Amino acid sequence: MTTLSDAYRNAPLLPHHIIPLDFDSVKHVPESHSWENSDSGLLIRIQPQPPESLPIIDLADPSALNLVGQACQTWGMFQVTNHGISSALLRDVEYETGRFFSLPAKEKTKALRSPGGASGYGVARITPFFNKFMWHEGFTIVESPVDHAREVWPHAYQRFCEVMEEYQKKMKELAERLLVLILKYLGLPGEPHDLHWLPHPTSDDPFRPASCTALQLNYYPSCPNPAQAMGLAPHTDSFLLTILHQVNGTHGGLEVLKDGAGWVRVVPTEGALLVNVGDMLRIMSNDLFPSVLHRVVVDKTRHRMSLAYFYGPPMDHRLSPILAGGAPVRFRPVTVREYIEMKAKNLDDALSRVRVRS
Ligand SMILES: O=C(O)CCC(=O)C(=O)O
Ligand SMILES: [Fe+2]
């Protein structure tokens, strides 16, 4: 079985594309992190639209299937309540995430991601595609964080690992529950034999192939001049679904590029989780669902944390559009592994490389 690390091994990163700035040590935004004069023009701040337009869906609502499907189609993003993740578990992951990021830089770098690795501490994986660095630190967990956590806390790593593993387990259940709804909405018939990695409604197959997942802990320190900085540059997520928990109450920081409306601020709803469509679901939906560009802006006085759980099919699964009603095929088949490798080398161009018709 191939793993996420195998897919990244062919696109190793340079050390300066892994080690974050020691944000505690700077009083001004250094040139390396100032997007103000960058030619990308990404920093244009468009007046945010009213936040209430992003759908909030109660998963206990009998019409959840249609509401989720429609939100995927119009926004590619929505918030969910009644998601089954306890507030105690959310508090625990927030605490453990904060415990890691509040360590001195020297301690955090003990968990540094290796150049060709998928997991560990480091800058955002999209960094090499931009000529400026982001106001961000990340910690990626693929399955168990134990190897890296043990480097940081040789005698106190267990709690961190237990909490992160429990959270991933619950996130996986939620992702699969959402995916079953979404695939039904797309008109997928009863028991598709090529999607046997999804849970069966009545019997659990112990030999079910492992889906490809990762948990990304994000930390955005407060910034002396937020207008110059970029928390996370615009990108789309690669996998089928991302489930995002935004920590720090309601002040937000995430913005989504909405067709015709510009950058719209996503204000977190207390207790809700945010779900967004990734490129792989865009492929499976034959372009019906957009995988939307999103970015993060930073704040002068408050740091922000978020936890993004990425869920995809097993690495060897061949993604191809589910066709209802004989629509023309928009994407050629591609394996999960091929797509992740393409994205690691081409970022925004990856999707156009599998597109056969626009
Ligand atoms: O921090 C956020 O709100 C967004 C994080 C994100 O987009 C990601 O990790 O891919
Ligand atoms: Fe993202």
Q: Any descriptors?
A:
single chain, 358 residues, alpha+beta, Jelly Rolls, 4-stranded antiparallel β-sheet, 9 helices, 14 strands, 26% helix, globular, binds 2-oxoglutaric acid, binds fe (ii) ion
Distance between the termini: 33 Å
Average pLDDT number: 89
- SS element count, helices: 9
Q: Based on helices, strands and strand pairing, what is the structural class?
A: alpha+beta
How many structural domains does the protein architecture include?
A: 1
> What fraction, in percent, of the residue positions are helical?
25-40%
CATH class, please?
A: Mainly Beta
Structure ligands: 2-oxoglutaric acid, fe (ii) ion
- CATH architecture, please? Sandwich
Total number of beta strands: 14
Strand order in the sheet with the most strands: 1-2-10-7-12-5-4-3
Give the overall silhouette: globular
Radius of gyration: 20 Å
Biggest beta sheet attributes: 8 strands, mixed
Low-confidence residue ranges:
none
Might you state the CATH topology name? Answer: Jelly Rolls
Give the strand content: 15-25%
